[in-house]
Amino acid sequence: MTNLEDIAAASPRMQGMSFGPADLAASRRMKTTRVGGGHPGYRVIEDPDPDNPEAVRATAQQDPWHYSIARMVDACTAVGALPFYGPYGDIKDVADARRSSGRVPARLRRRLVVAPGADRYRQEGLLPPADEVAFAKKVIEAIPDGRGVHMIDGKMQDDATWKQCQVMVQLAEMLARKDPELAEAYGFTPAAV
Predict the structure, then answer these.
(1) Cβ(60)–Cβ(36) under 8 Å?
(2) pTM for this structure?
(3) In this predicted model, what pLDDT tens digit does every residue of 127-136 receive, in sequence order?
């Protein structure tokens, strides 16, 4: 992690980098039990209720990889390489694998698959949802040149939103060219993509 940016820029032939949470955990001597997941012991706890200090406090599992993944995404973006998230090891836990893939940042919408049959549910977690693609198309239509501030569905949208929507629609178009079901879900006609 210390040399991440230098590694990404080491060669003009760099095509991509992969982030492996289990490998990083091992090198940091962190406790981990699941490839591609967190650890139930890494938790944050809610502050005590001042009116009821003895009440049970909610906890949530932390994502100990967020900072490191974000750095890898930034390093890849700087050199035009593709960032990939590492594999998810518990291939029988389809629900958590989907949730895990869904937490992957948009720029990192790629994941290594190492087990037969695991690709579809991982892919499902990485696909842009149809409603988000529809909204992105709506923003692009309302702001064709990407300039100014506009109110869309009661919320302010600007050039930053427009840029994010461009990325979303471009990804959806690429996927739609390869998959007729996605083309239909995203509202693209075959001739349009």
Answers:
(1) no
(2) 0.56
(3) 788 998 999 9
Final residue of a domain: which of 73, 97, 126?
A: 126
109 in the same domain as 15: yes
Of 73, 103, 126, the residue at which a domain comes to its end is 126
Cα–Cα distance for residue pair 111/92, rounded to 1 Å: 17
For 10, how many CA atoms within 13 A lie in the half-sphere containing its CB? 9
Whether 45 and 98 share a structural domain: yes
Dihedral angle, C-alpha 99, 89, 119, 164, nearest 10 °: 40
Distance CA 129, CA 134 (A): 9
Which domain, by its residues, includes 8? 4-126
What tens digit of pLDDT does each residue of 24-68 get? 777 877 766 555 556 677 788 999 999 999 999 998 877 777 788
Same domain flag for 159 and 100: no
